[in-house]
Protein 1
Amino acid sequence: MTSPNWDQYANLGMLQAVIDPADSQGFKNRLIDRVQWRLLQPKLANTKSLLDFGCGTGRFASRIGDMGIKYAGIDTSENMIYTAKKINQSSDFQFADFNGLEIPFPDNYFDTCISCGVLQYIIKGEDSQQVLAEIYRVLQPEGRLIMIEQASRSNQKSGLGVRSLTEADYQDELSRLFTVKSISRVRSGELSRLSNRFLKISKFLPWLFNLGLDYVAQQVTDSINRADDFKLYKLRYFDILIDSNAILRN
Ligand SMILES: C[S@@+](CC[C@H](N)C(=O)[O-])C[C@H]1O[C@@H](n2cnc3c(N)ncnc32)[C@H](O)[C@@H]1O
């Protein structure tokens, strides 16, 4: 697997450890986190029990718990789990060894699995089908797998060793065990002029950041959804949300 050594980032804090480790001021990471959560949250409206596969610092845990959902997070980095437990003391986090090939829960345990920024390191790799089969095992019949991952049509990779994967690569790899219901675009890997300006001004006027956050987050998603094929092929990468259901077992 080409996943970076996540242990080294874990003490950078809830967002910096798992989004952009270079963003020490945190505005960019807060914007990306808001963009992702705005799209993820409505998908969880009917969820009762959820596995966060590769939970990192558990940045979604308390928000998911507040929705009345039973949350469990697992991660292959001991340091991430240590940080997650420290930050979210009332949530369930477990270290899972074996590169995610053994999820420490029984069959049919969760109705939903989310995975954000994790399967992009695994899909099309040597363990890809085994990891997906393990997620499938712990999901109830027709349970949901919702992922937010990087896609690229320009065959470029982002900084941290992600494979260059198209939406079709994900769809193809999932198709043995999952039916893909939708693939939606979340954000461009490159910040727009508006986002850059917003982040620059926020450094001097932090109150403006809170005021404008939801507006700019919506613009970020609208902008990638407006992008035509020509623009998409020029981007280094963009985030996609894949909503899928486990295929019914015979
Ligand atoms: C980019 S971080 C994302 C963390 C979290 N999902 C989030 O969005 O905040 C990727 C995380 O995936 C974990 N990870 C990588 N490979 C994994 C695997 N095979 N099984 C479980 N976790 C894994 C890493 O340790 C790291 O914490």
Protein 2
Amino acid sequence: MYGAVVCPRCRKGFAVDLERRTSSCPHCGRRIQVRRMKTHFTSESASLTAQAVRELNRRGRRLKVDQGPRERVLPMSPSRIETLVQDLGEFDQDELEAALGGRTAMEAEEILRRVLQMGLVYEVSPGRYRKA
Ligand SMILES: [Zn+2]
């Protein structure tokens, strides 16, 4: 299993073998504990992981790399957002992000702000939301 990680020192992405305990950054040589790294992408395929690393380095750390082929994500219209919220019922930002399928955390945050403004959801407890 391979994973795409971001170097804590130079902030560049690289691929690691997740079965190994340590690895080092090919860009700056920093040694890392594989287990402690947040993986932005995991795959059995070294070439898919390398592709994810290229994407990470091209678009920066905020990017959440797609896990393989997936249908194109359509822009979120208010009615789609409403349907999504109805389906979720009660959720937190991570669940919303997962339901958005491959969109970035930033977009989940933005959508959350919008549905709160629209009165579609309310905050039941800090960080938990429920459809109104
Ligand atoms: Zn580095």
